[in-house]
Every structure is written in C-alpha cells, then in structure tokens.
Design a protein that fits this description.
Blueprint lengths: L1 E6 L2 E11 L2 E2 L11 E7 L7 E5 L8 E2 L9 E7 L4 E12 L3 E8 L2 H13 L17 E2 L2
Antiparallel strand pairs: 1-2, 2-3, 2-9, 3-6, 4-5, 4-7, 5-10, 7-8, 8-9
C-alpha cells in the first residue's frame, strides 16, 4: 500500500508493509531473484561510506526485524539476478507490532534517504522503536 508524505516541498511515497511477531512479511517491490533487506548507516571507515546490517531470513517466511531498528533508520531492499540489480532505499517512519512497518521511499540513493531522515529527526520525531527479535549486528559493507 502506497500513500504520500509531503516534506520540504516534495512528495515522498509511503510504503506500509505487513509485519507479524517481529517479522517483515512484505517487500516494497518484487525483486527478480535473491531478495535481501538491510539497515544502513553512514561510516566513513567503510568502502563507499556506508555500513550495513543484513536482515536475516525467517525460517518460513519474511525477514526478522532487527531488535535495534529505529525511526529514521535507512533501509535497503534489493534483488539480483544475472541481468538485474534492483535496489529500493527508504527510511523507517513507523512500526506497529503485528500490523505494519511504514517506510518513506523509494529514494534515489541511500544518501537521499539519510538527508530526509535527518530533516525529520530534527523536527522532533520520536526516538527508537523496540522490536521483539534478537538480532545483533556486525558491519557488512555496502555493495
């Protein structure tokens, strides 16, 4: 489901994705093959300037939402095949356990998503979400 969010004289799509018991059940687009989801954050020590925490696939369906996911976090979804490399960048706007994860996006780049996240957080948006999964993270370099 896509709705619109207006910010700084521009309209940004809002994607509301289903969640259940700490799992994300949907993606904001249908990838070709080998789908992934990850949280990104800037890190000047990393190649490309970004670090990533890949979300684990759930045993039967969807992805396990990271326990430290926060409002304003940058997320990336993608899928790859021999001919297609598709990516979707956005940011976390809201999470309602057992209902939905709401994202603003897609953005053209992770940098664009970060700029919007910083603007929204400076406007006093609420701080971290607390999710039920227990995933710890290591820095996985952004492709």
């Amino acid at each position: 489901m896509h709705r619109h969010h207006t910010h700084a004289d521009r309209t940004v799509l809002r994607a509301q994705l289903r969640s259940r018991a700490g799992l994300l059940l949907d993606l904001p687009f249908t990838p070709a093959t080998a789908p992934w989801a990850a949280t990104l954050w800037p890190d000047v020590r990393s190649p490309g300037g970004w670090c990533r925490l890949p979300w684990s696939l759930a045993p039967q369906r969807g992805w396990i939402l990271p326990v430290d996911l926060a409002l304003g976090d940058i997320v990336e979804f993608g899928g790859v095949s021999s001919t297609v490399d598709r990516r979707w960048w956005g940011l976390v706007e809201a999470y309602e356990p057992d209902v939905s994860l709401t994202l603003l996006g897609p953005m053209d780049t992770a940098d664009d998503a970060l700029a919007l996240a910083q603007d929204l957080l400076q406007q006093g948006r609420p701080a971290p979400l607390h999710l039920g999964s227990q995933q710890t993270g290591r820095c996985h370099h952004h492709r």
